[in-house]
Amino acid sequence: MNVTPSATAEPFEHPALFYRDADEYLAGTVPFLLEGLAAGEPVAVAVPGRNLELIRGALGAAAAEVRLIDMGEAGRNPGRIIPGVLRAFTDLHPGRRVRIIGEPIWPGRSATEYPACLQHEALINLAFSGRDATILCPYDLHGLPHEVIEDARMTHPVLVDGSVASASAHYALERVLRDCNRPLPAPEDAAVMRYGQGFGDDPLGRVRAFATEHAARIGLKGERLEDLRLIASELAANSLDYGGGSGTLRVWREGGRVVFDVSDGGHIADPLAGRRPTPIHQLGSRGLLVTNLLSDLVRIHTGQGGTTIRVYFDVDGADPLEHLKSIEDAGFAGSPEDTGSPEDLANA
């Protein structure tokens, strides 16, 4: 399948591949990968485990030349995919055209996760505009709801079905981003504290203590509890610096997840905030990036009236940094020579 742009076209392409079964999946993905290898392009595949094994088997010996990533692990948090998977790979190959298959939406994604998945697909178009890359996104026509397929038509400028590639008549980037920025439902039985101006001394220390105490009480432990502590501190610091000087922290349990959110009077104007790899020496403006790297899901609502950032941790979840490190052993951010690994960034 040839989706390589012409010399005068936008260099970045973001097609959706519609498939109905394993045969159609392989027919749409394997030739795309082999074309890239034949052209000398760096090639990566980031798809859920079962589909990853299908592709690995179909590629045979050529699989050794392809970066293979289990999206079910590395992309569990959709907000992590652009900085920790896609940019992590493309930035290792400056000056070269790159080919990636990315499948962030699969049967089994929860209703809570899906808006973040949809937002991610829309933001790919902003994050890679003007870059010399193709990111092909498979969609399971039989396994995914009809509404998800319709959304794919709005987030992908090109649609591929079988051997036919066509421009999407429904592409609507701004509409999708607007629809994904909706107020988040209020939690039930949350522990609540206020911090910042007028609410006592040492606001960050109080936030860290409150967040870890309540998260531990409802099931989070070990390294994940330390991750939550770091994120809560980073987000509260953003409130103090950019959110009007104060904020509200809430912590609660939601099914198998510990959840907390931070609300303040700030407004996030940059839709890609938290999705750009940040050099290790840049100490500021990294709170949202650290949040995306270390948590299992992030939801954000922002407007002129304020911002809420909601962060989810699977109680039994593994450390996400282990999966990020496997992508390219410390080759994480925009300038590989001066950025460090995901773990370095999180602990800086």
From TrEMBL:
This is Anti-sigma regulatory factor. The keyword Transferase applies. It holds the Pfam family HATPase_c_2. Residues 204-312 form the Histidine kinase/HSP90-like ATPase domain. Residues 14-157 form the MEDS domain. Residues 328-348 are annotated as: Disordered. Signal peptide: none annotated. It comes from Planomonospora parontospora. Keywords: Kinase, Serine/threonine-protein kinase, Transferase. GO terms for molecular function: protein serine/threonine kinase activity.
